[in-house]
Write a structure and sequence with these properties.
Elements: E1 7-8, H1 23-32, E2 37-38, E3 42-46, E4 52-56, E5 62-64, H2 67-75, E6 82-84, H3 109-114, E7 119-123, H4 129-137, E8 142-145, H5 150-163, H6 167-188, E9 194-198, E10 201-202, E11 205-206, H7 213-220, E12 223-225, E13 227-228, H8 238-244, E14 248-252, H9 276-279, E15 283-286, H10 297-308, E16 339-340, H11 349-354
Parallel strand pairs: 5-6, 5-7, 7-8, 9-12, 9-14, 13-16, 14-15
Antiparallel strand pairs: 1-2, 3-4, 10-11
Length: 355
């Protein structure tokens, strides 16, 4: 990578006696002249997938190519620097007024270039390498995020804040998120995790894999998925789900406030009505923040924990001494009877963003 360094020299003004060039004048000039200072307009940073990129010292114009990154920019108070985002960047509501550059998977490079960004923010799980390369070809740097756990999401927010010049705001935000996670853990640490089926899509039936940040979010909420898959978005067989009998079904509200399919309607469908969770109406419905690795995720995790473990959120008297026993482990080992899946079919990333 070629690095350009610009030197700025501060000239020492001549005095009337300087033209004599006496040795005394030269010595005096050397003693009092300010040191030469270097102010390179660019700096190098390493993104979350290990790429070293060259960005301006002060980043004034940002384009976001992922809804979670747009949310994070607003949470850091940097929305005035956001000059463009995608069609699916809809939170907060003000983000819908930003200039749109197309979808997350196939944005318009021409539209991005027209905004003259100092930096484009991308995320590995959603944006394509071809997009990153196309931006590099026209000299626009991109910074990639790639968190896979709740803790990694919080750390990613802190790194992004530091790079964008919002370190103080980032520190306050991440400290608050870490505190919320810690308090939640204390509430549910002694409880056995609920065995759940997280429903990304019903037709075909798609859930989540082990290495997704959503799977980790479930663990923080006191739950464990009955699906054991190395694929991020495995397509699963309903008959196997009936065999596994999850305690709860978890649905995510769409942007309109409704679940993709009415949970109650499942009771009338073949196969679904064989699930105890359907017969007993053991559903949990949470907002779409659970789908996005952004600051709101922590609140979504707490909301889910309240639905799965309401007993943990019943306020107790301050003089309650029942806490004498040491808390047990946060989560029990994953059951050995979980389903292993092959050849899953992932949903469209654009559809996931639109959820």
């Amino acid at each position: 990578m070629r690095i350009f360094i610009h030197w700025t020299l501060r000239a020492v003004p001549f005095t009337a006696h300087a033209v004599l060039f006496s040795s005394a004048a030269i010595c005096h000039s050397q003693a009092t002249a300010p040191p030469l200072q270097t102010h390179p307009p660019y700096r190098q940073v390493t993104d979350e997938i290990g790429r070293i990129i060259r960005v301006p010292q002060s980043i004034e114009r940002i384009v976001s190519l992922a809804p979670n990154l747009t949310e994070t920019i607003y949470a850091l108070g940097l929305q005035d620097h956001l000059v463009g985002d995608t069609d699916y960047c809809d939170f907060p509501a003000e983000a819908q007024q930003k200039t749109k550059v197309g979808g997350a998977v196939n944005p318009s490079i021409e539209a991005i270039a027209a905004l003259h960004p100092d930096l484009v923010l991308v995320t590995k799980s959603l944006n394509r390498p071809e997009t990153v390369q196309a931006l590099a070809d026209i000299g626009i740097p991109s910074y990639a995020t790639d968190p896979h756990t709740v803790d990694a999401i919080i750390a990613s927010i802190a790194r992004l804040a530091d790079m964008l010049g919002a370190s103080d705001t980032g520190s306050a935000l991440t400290a608050d998120l870490e505190h919320q996670v810690s308090v939640l853990h204390e509430r549910i640490a002694s409880l056995s995790p609920r065995r759940v089926l997280f429903i990304v899509w019903t037709e075909p039936l798609i859930s989540i894999g082990n290495d997704t940040f959503i799977a980790d979010a479930l663990r923080h909420a006191g739950a464990v998925s009955v699906i054991d898959s190395s694929q991020n978005w495995p397509q699963i067989n309903l008959e196997e789900v009936v065999r596994l009998q999850p305690e709860f079904l978890i649905f995510v509200e769409s942007h309109s406030g409704a679940t993709p399919h009415s949970a109650d309607a499942l009771a009338g469908l073949p196969g679904w009505r064989l699930l105890n969770a359907v017969r007993n109406r053991r559903y949990a419905t949470i907002n779409d923040a659970i789908n996005r690795p952004a600051p709101r995720l922590v609140s979504a995790v707490e909301d889910l924990a309240r639905q799965l473990h309401p007993e943990a959120f019943t306020d107790k008297p301050q003089n309650d001494k029942e806490q004498s026993k040491p808390p047990g482990p946060a989560l029990s080992p994953r059951p050995s009877s979980l389903l292993s899946l092959n050849e899953p079919v992932a949903p469209s990333e654009e559809e996931l963003c639109a959820r």
